[in-house]
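Write out the 3D structure for:
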Amino acid sequence: MTLGRTYGVGLVGLQGRIVEVEADIGQSLPSFILLGLPDASLNEARDRVKSAAKNAGLPLSRRRITVNLMPADVPKHGSGFDLAIAVAALCAGGVLRSPGRCIFLAELGLDSRLRPIRGILPAVMAAVSAGHTDFAVAAQNAEEAALVPGARVRGYSCLAEVAADFGADPEQLNFPAPVARTEEGTDENEDESDIRIPDLSDVAGQPEARFAVEVAAAGAHHLLMTGPPGAGKTMLAERLPGILPDLPDDQAMEVTAIHSLAWQGRPCRQLLRRPPFESPHHTASTAAVIGGGAGIPRPGAASRAHRGVLFLDEAPEYERRVLDGLRQPLESGRLVLHRAAGTAVYPARFQLVLAANPCPCGLATGKGIECTCTATQRRRYFSRLSGPLLDRVDLQLSVQRVSLGDYFAQESAEASSAVAARVREARKLQRDRLRPLGAETNAEVPGTLLRDTLRPPAVATAALDRAMERQLLTARGYDRVLRVAWTIADLVGHGTPDADDVGQALAFRRQDAAA
């Protein structure tokens, strides 16, 4: 037999496409040709495959080997095709039998060991959706791949083990000597429950800010906190994920797939149930926060925060283009990244939490007599937070310094567990009310429903109507106030928002609009 065929998966963003790997052995001088628009790392697979096959005791044919990755007009990238190429070449040489529709996903080391690859979970999900059920992956990827329902996964440590399962002569095979594993660290099996989540009881005072965080958690709203250094803005933001409910199966699979693709050296061994928390430094680039990079764009912090919290501390210190790049996902819940090598679409339905000082020096509080910033410096500082971005932030509040009495108060602050229970109950009310309408949380409710089916009584929205008539609110701001009012009503047990709920939501929106 001179033709071998296997299957792999090519990923563009989270979207996977089945790639058919054909290997042909011709009657000419020794060479190894790789076709199908491979990138640089995939082109290097020729030397990896030849060395791995030789060290596994199954040297490739000394004639011309041509490998084609179909569809040939779609760019391929990454080292995840190594194993599929090696098995196809060995099948073409008659060393292995045909593996049928099995998908091969692994990188090869020169010593024939199988190495884990990033994005194994979305790759397996795409293949299962396309009708493939059998998978051969590196042993380190096996648990992650098996998270996909309907996937039959076999994990291998080396090429010889794969060859033994597909008809190779056992006497020919060479198994590499075991080595001590150090590359993944010692915390691979660390469970999410072993990680201490910061508790709200650590925050002294700040009742208004604590309630704003609770409202943000209950309705999946965006939040801006402005206040002097040391007021507790960062502490409050870091404790928001601790009061969010666990993710259901479908959302947990989405989040785990993103983190699998953004893999930073450790495969996922279980679905990520806790909402993620991302807090990039203010010097982070657009590609680091929004996503991008050379070739196929990679997910950034905004996508890694999907179904969780994206916290931007010292928000006015970020580049203006980074902040404005968040406007699209705040509206649509996804990021579309266009590059010459392809277009990647990543989900990015996160809660945005912004923290800012009142001025560059942070001392413009109270009478502000210690502040040394000029009016021009203050305007320049806040100008990076554009109006269109702030218009998408539901809750905007000022956080003051904690008083001495609150700091040394004998009564301990309410713990995250008690707040989380109220958040779960509010989320349940929202699901029951909104699922027939195609939404899960108040933050996702379309404006048309807020102005029709879910419109509160006119007496409840009187102050809101006056604010819009005075042009203190945009149409988007009007809808966002109503969404927050529904969340407050859910937390306090009102069936429909009343005037107090709307008034409080309006006060959280803008101080001048509430006047």
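Residues 183-189 have pLDDT under 50 and may be disordered.
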